[in-house]
Specification:
By secondary structure, the protein is of the alpha+beta class. The protein has 7 helices and 11 strands.
Length: 261
């Protein structure tokens, strides 16, 4: 992977990518380190693709790859009151650094609480064994009700994602995207760990430049929204395309992510 996994201790994690030798993105993931395992949290669909990609690197290592998607439910909590709600639920200190996580217990249900927060969002993710997920979710919702905690759907999550400029694999980047085109090499790639597939391309672009396009945030004064894949033109020349769009309640305007020359 692009980031330094070897030097992470249990309870910590990082964002990382798997690149093609050409520097293009094969997978994007959050990596969390446990005592005897590493959890790769990816966009839906990549759990089918990743084992085959990693198989080529397994030569003498004593490693087993398994798809754990059906074993857990992800419960995401977002908003400024999230840390205080979680402290009240678990009656314990909670992780506070990005990708730091803790193994906790709720009514005898073992959970993993992962901090996804940074300077522009307050977000936690709870991994719950599937058979206990409904009970745990109901308990957490009830505990946070007085502070305004309530259920929200995928559309709300998607609006928040686009408002903060967060790229989603399969939507805003993919196998045709160079890592430096996303700007995510700053958080998902190590400059000191040594070689990884595609590192030479990433380092060359960082040193000499030469990018043809880069991801950009867009605001629309008009009410109609573009669709994913719609082209962007200037003076009759095509200069880019849109990847994600929504109406922003915060700005009361249409916003989008896309790539521009």
């Amino acid at each position: 992977l692009t980031n330094d996994i070897r030097n992470l201790s249990p309870g910590n994690g990082c964002r990382a990518m798997l690149l093609h030798a050409t520097g293009k993105i094969l997978a994007d993931m959050n990596v969390t380190i446990f005592q005897d395992s590493v959890l790769l949290d990816t966009e839906m669909g990549l759990e089918k693709k990743l084992p085959g990609l990693f198989d080529r690197y397994l030569i003498t290592e004593d490693v087993q790859l398994s798809d754990r998607t059906e074993a857990y439910v992800h419960l995401a909590l977002q908003g400024p009151e999230t840390p205080s709600i979680l402290k009240n639920v678990f009656q314990d200190e909670i992780p506070s650094r990005p990708l730091q996580h803790a193994c906790l217990d709720l009514d005898s249900v073992p959970l993993t609480l992962v901090c996804l927060s940074d300077q522009i969002k307050t977000e936690y993710q709870i991994l719950i064994p599937s058979e206990k997920a409904l009970h745990a979710a109901q308990k957490i919702l009830a505990s946070g009700k007085q502070k305004g905690l309530g259920p929200a759907g995928f559309e709300a999550w998607e609006i928040l994602r686009i408002e903060r400029g967060e790229l989603r694999y399969g939507r805003d980047m993919g196998e045709d995207t160079l890592l430096p085109e996303t700007g995510l090499e700053k958080v998902s790639a190590s400059e000191t760990k040594g070689c990884y597939p595609g590192q030479e391309v990433v380092a060359r672009i960082q040193t000499y430049g030469g990018l043809k396009r880069k991801v950009t945030g867009l605001i629309f004064e008009r009410s109609s929204l573009p669709d994913s894949g719609d082209k962007i033109s200037s003076g009759g020349k095509e200069i880019g395309w849109v990847t994600s769009a929504c109406v922003s309640p915060a700005l009361e305007k249409g916003i989008a992510l896309g790539y521009l020359e």
